[in-house]
Amino acid sequence: MIADVLAETTARMTRAVEAAKEDFATVRTGRANPQLFQKVLVDYYGSPTPLAQLASMANPEARSLVITPYDKSALKAIEQAIRDMPNLGANPSNDGNIVRVTMPELTQERRKEYVKLVRSKGEDAKVHVRGIRRKAKDELDALKADIGEDEIARGEKELDALTRQHVDLIDEALKRKEAELLEV
Fold first, then answer.
1. CB-based contacts of 123, cutoff 8 Å, min separation 6
2. What are the backbone dihedrals phi and psi of residue 176, each rounded to the nearest 5 degrees, phi first?
3. Nearest to 59, CA basis, from 87, 28, 81
4. What DSSP string describes 91-109?
5. Is 90 exceeded by the pLDDT of residue 128?
6. Within 13 A of 20's CA, how many CA atoms are on the CB side?
7. What's the CA gap between 171 and 173, in Å, rounded?
8. How far apart are CA 2 and CA 151, in angstroms?
9. What is the mean pLDDT of residues 5-15?
10. Burial track 132-168 (b if 16+ CB lie within 10 A, e otherwise)
11. Which of 15, 73, 131, 180 has the fewest CB atoms within 10 Å, i.e. is most exposed?
């Protein structure tokens, strides 16, 4: 029973770490990257649709991205969604067939703002992992009547080790992203 709780907790914490890494990828660095546009939602016929479902993306140069919509009628909506996206600072323009996005050069001040944003996202991810730990601890405490206290204590130690391991993974990803952001 303890093993089941720990296995489920491990899976949930791993998903939380992956979500944090994906979230870090949406913060732009000095170069254009299609992952930056993963969270862009385009108003397509009245419903918010992820940009990746409406268009293909390619980056021919370091600071530019070419977005080719599958449906040409969505060009204006795609351009508007990119313009409205916070923390991108992108300048989209369309020529009737494609949307060309040019990313401005990052200033040192802007890089520091992005580092703060990434640290905030990292802290949120750690809080989420700790929330998963708290829920698993409650599940372990509920098993106290069926299983001895020694077994529960061992399970809690394993749970703490799991939590530490996943928080460390988030910290590693955070350090990599910070280094990437501060690299000129």
1. none
2. -60, -45
3. 28
4. EEEE-SS-EEEEPPPPPHH
5. yes
6. 31
7. 6
8. 8
9. 94
10. bbeebbebbeebeeeeeeeebeebbebbeebbeebbe
11. 73
